[in-house]
Amino acid sequence: MIPIRARRGRLLRLLAVVLAACAVVTACGGGDTTDDGRQRMTFLNILPLESLSYSAELIADTQGFFAARGLDVTFETTQGSAPAIQTVLAGSAEVTRIGDIETMIAAGNRNAPLVAFGEVIHRGTIRMVSAADDPITQAAQFRGKLVGTPSEGGTSSITLDLVAGSAGVPPAEVRRQVVGLAPGVFDLLTSGRIDAYIVSLDTSVQLQRTRPEAVVFDPNDAISAGSQVYATSRATAQDPAERDKLRRYMAAIDDAVRFIVADEANGFRNTMAAISSKYRVPALGDPETARLALAGYVDSYTGGETPVGISPQRWRQTYDEITGIGQLPPGLDPAQWLDTGIPPAGTS
After folding, report:
1. Number of continuous H segments (helices) and E segments (strands) in the chain
2. What local confidence, expressed as pLDDT, does residue 32 receive?
3. Burial class (CB in 10 A: 0-12, 13-18, 19+), 190
4. What is the pLDDT of residues 181-204, one digit of tens each?
5. Which pLDDT belongs to residue 54?
6. CA-CA distance, 12 to 17, in Å (whole number)?
7. Strand, helix or coil at 231?
8. Which residue pairs from 268-274 have beta carbons closer than 8 angstroms and sit at least 24 positions apart in sequence?
9. Residue 6: its pLDDT value, please?
10. Which of 66, 134, 120 is nearest to 306 (CA)?
11. What pLDDT score was predicted for residue 35?
């Protein structure tokens, strides 16, 4: 007879295995569909979800566009694009939204079986802020400057290299310092400790409203890179059932984008009310700042050939730019990292 203590230990170990399995399956016993027949799907956001950057996702959720397409979407936050890429490649989530730069570097340098299949942010949302007493308004003016970045390396730093490179300035001739994202970074600028720093679209709008001496440089004036793409694993994209879910996801995002674009004439009141009904987005605390930021996102939504499609021509231009600063080897075919057949088949 097995002692009670040993049997208890065996039961605890078995319970641990069962719980771990439940975590992987998303909802133990729930399967891949909800009680009303909607299919479960996981979207990995690489930044906190409560941001206007994810307005399309938030509207698709709150306005029922996901549900109308037969989807029950769960949002999960990751610590940046690297873990998001690893998670979709492992098959533990269907989709994430990351920069075109990260996508190409992962697929081109590390041979990751990653494909981009849709795009909603067609124009980059990174901005570079300087002060009126020493403004940076052209790419060539970054030569010799000390620029604050949110973190070491990453998309912001590569974007800076691309902007400088567009004017023939080598990356080594642009100094950089990690300054984070704290509100007090602007004081480093006005005190002369840095010459410029990198912020999000939302922050740049807020600075222009509260700090008249702020000068904002838009990288889109110099480079093609900077779009945000929906990415998944090649295996997921090639699975017929999963591919259908991706089509319906993009159709819901298309519905959301059209809702937001149409709401611009109304000052985005319906958009802000819908998001606020479920999510607490700090930017919505100042309606005028939110309105201006949403107008910037509408510009990025409408900057493509189709609302949620990827332009192969721009994709190629982005690859050439990244190759030009040595972040990717020349001679590759960036089209192999694209799957352009998903969004058009699912959009309304």
Report:
1. 14, 10
2. 86
3. middle
4. 777 899 999 999 999 999 999 999
5. 96
6. 9
7. strand
8. 268/294, 268/295, 271/55, 271/59, 274/58, 274/59, 274/62, 274/63
9. 45
10. 120
11. 83
Residue in the structure block whose two tokens are 């190409």: 104
Contact 196, 130 (CB under 8 A): yes
- Answer for the pair 215, 130: CB distance below 8 angstroms, yes or no: yes
Beta-strand relationship, 175-178 and 214-217: unpaired
The residues facing 98 across adjacent strands are: 229
The structure's pTM equals 0.86
* Dihedrals phi, psi of 334, to nearest 5 degrees: -65, -15
> How many Cβ atoms are within 10 Å of 38's Cβ, its own excluded?
17
The residues, ordered by sequence, that sit 6+ positions from 107 with a Cβ below 8 Å of its Cβ are 113, 114, 115, 336, 337
Output the CA–CA distances (angstroms, integers) from residue 208 to 121, 136, 230, in the order listed.
Answer: 22, 15, 30
Write the pLDDT tens digit of every residue in 55-93: 999 999 999 999 999 999 999 999 889 999 999 999 999
Q: How far is CA 283 from CA 45, 280, 287, in A?
A: 18, 9, 8
C-alpha distances (whole Å) from 146 to each of 12, 14, 28, 137 are 57, 57, 52, 15
CA distance 98 to 120: 11
H or E element, residue 16: helix 4-24
pLDDT lower than 50: segments of the chain: 1-2, 4-30, 345-346
CB 316 within 8 A of CB 225: no
Taking the C-alpha atoms of residue 212 and residue 135, their distance in angstroms, rounded to an integer, is 13
**CB neighbours of 175 closer than 8 A, spacing ≥ 6?**
144, 145, 146, 147
Do the beta carbons of residue 270 and residue 263 sit within 8 Å?
yes
| Token pair of 15 as six digits | 């319970």
Query: How far apart are alpha carbons 311 and 172 in whole angstroms?
Result: 31
Cα–Cα distances in angstroms (integers) from residue 222 to residues 131, 138, 178, 255, 263, in the given order: 20, 8, 23, 31, 30
Question: How many Cα atoms sit within 13 Å of 304 on the Cβ side?
Answer: 28
What is the model's pLDDT at position 85? 96
